[in-house]
């Protein structure tokens, strides 16, 4: 079986975890010092000032959306947010849950990210306050142009990099372009902490709200100066402060047990990126598909593409998928196709002013959704594995 993903948690990680668990007295397993160490190390790796560890990438997006909602009155001009049609359910749903008016943007035909021409049209017509960018499968859009558009139209940029850990644009890692960014550490992602996610930011105010939203709305995880401000504002003494809740929040905490795994995972992350990039280049060299082929190299030929999986779009999708499965090769829909085709989006957006846009997504709706799928890329693949996958695909797609 050629698997879509492989577990990055190996026997060395497990043995390290066992040693840590075997301490006398036993270590604290819930969120504690190891979580703080992991957050610090991850922020340093990505290149941001702050990182907040949560229990999933989906929870990271939830925390990001509600942090923005909490600071809405002094950060945003309206509640309109542009989101990519090619993304993930829990990239979009937290913003719907937080009361934002979502406006869908079609995908770029070269890299599956945002179509920047369409995006500018939306900026002009809708005048949104916010943009959620999702870096799809490790591919990064033209960030020079995207940043220029956001600056020109006064749009706040958020970044979902759950599939793009380690990819770069002009030497700058994904997760450092937006006001906040999110990552996933689910099984089979670039690194794994079993379940887990991270929110990164350089903004001190966002960071404080994120810490409170993660843990019930209390202030005990904040610095002493900020805690003092809350206590004075609400006339709360030190004893009662521990169980005083200043925001309507969640419990999104992960554990120190997972953080111990994460600290070890970070040590091999560069090797994982190199292997994924090498695999991608082998796919890119061998796949013969005149109908559509991903092209992430246009603006950044010297950067890293930490590819999550290799995408294919072709009208013979059903035949190719059937043959891949027959040969014990895992394959799946290209993420989940177009989000605009998902029932919850149609239900939630039908009464919104932007509903008409759900039908104006030709590439996402007609190509990605109908003809798209992806095949394995993970550090465990061999060259023979990739050759086999490419050979089967090329039997249907070659000129």
What does this entry show, briefly?
The protein has helices spanning 11-21, 33-46, 57-70, 72-75, 89-97, 116-126, 143-153, 204-214, 224-234, 238-241, 256-266, 269-286, 317-326, 343-349, 362-371, 383-397, and strands spanning 50-54, 80-84, 101-105, 130-134, 156-160, 168-169, 172-173, 180-184, 197-201, 310-313, 332-333, 372-375.
Salient structural properties:
single chain; 399 residues; alpha/beta; Aspartate Aminotransferase, domain 2; seven-stranded mixed beta sheet; three-stranded antiparallel beta sheet; 12 strands
Description:
By secondary structure, the protein is an alpha/beta fold. It has a single domain (11-215, 251-397), classed as Type I PLP-dependent aspartate aminotransferase-like (Major domain) (Aspartate Aminotransferase, domain 2), CATH 3.40.640.10. The chain has 16 helices and 12 strands. The strands form 3 sheets. Strands 1-9-8-5-4-2-3 form a 7-stranded mixed sheet, sandwiched between helices. Helix 3 runs parallel beside helix 5 (89-97) and helix 13 runs antiparallel to helix 16 (383-397). It is globular, with a radius of gyration of 22 Å.
């Amino acid at each position: 079986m050629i698997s879509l993903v492989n577990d990055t948690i190996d026997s060395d990680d497990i043995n390290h975890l066992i040693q840590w668990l075997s301490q006398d007295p036993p270590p604290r397993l819930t969120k504690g010092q190891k979580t703080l160490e992991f957050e610090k190390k991850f922020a340093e790796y990505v290149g941001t000032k702050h990182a907040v560890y949560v229990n999933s990438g989906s929870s990271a997006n939830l925390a990001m959306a509600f942090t923005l909602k909490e600071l809405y009155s002094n950060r945003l001009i309206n509640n309109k947010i542009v989101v990519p049609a090619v993304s993930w359910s829990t990239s979009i749903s937290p913003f719907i849950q937080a009361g934002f008016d979502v406006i869908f943007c079609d995908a770029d035909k070269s890299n599956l990210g945002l179509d920047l021409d369409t995006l500018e049209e939306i900026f002009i017509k809708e005048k949104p306050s916010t943009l959620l960018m999702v870096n799809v499968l490790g591919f990064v859009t033209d960030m020079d142009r995207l940043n220029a558009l956001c600056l020109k139209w006064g749009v706040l940029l958020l970044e979902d990099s759950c599939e793009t850990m380690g990819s770069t644009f002009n030497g700058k890692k994904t997760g450092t372009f937006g006001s906040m960014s999110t990552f996933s550490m689910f099984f089979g992602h670039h690194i794994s902490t079993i379940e887990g996610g991270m929110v990164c930011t350089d903004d001190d105010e966002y960071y404080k709200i994120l810490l409170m939203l993660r843990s019930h709305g209390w202030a005990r995880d904040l610095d002493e100066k900020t805690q003092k401000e809350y206590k004075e504002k609400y006339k709360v003494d030190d004893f009662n402060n521990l169980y005083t809740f200043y925001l309507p929040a969640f419990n999104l905490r992960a554990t120190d047990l997972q953080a111990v795994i994460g600290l070890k995972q970070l040590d091999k992350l560069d090797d994982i990126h190199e292997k994924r990039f090498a695999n991608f280049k082998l796919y890119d060299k061998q796949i013969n598909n005149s109908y559509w082929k991903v092209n992430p190299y246009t603006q950044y030929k010297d950067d890293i593409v930490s590819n999550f999986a290799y995408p294919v779009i072709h009208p013979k999708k059903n035949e190719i998928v059937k043959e891949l499965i027959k040969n014990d090769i895992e394959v799946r829909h290209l993420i989940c196709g177009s989000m605009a085709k998902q029932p919850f989006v149609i239900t939630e957006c039908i009464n919104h002013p932007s509903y008409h846009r759900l039908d104006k997504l030709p590439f996402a709706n007609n190509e990605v959704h109908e003809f798209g799928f992806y095949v394995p890329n993970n550090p465990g693949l061999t060259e023979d594995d990739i050759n086999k996958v490419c050979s089967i695909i090329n039997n249907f797609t070659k000129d």
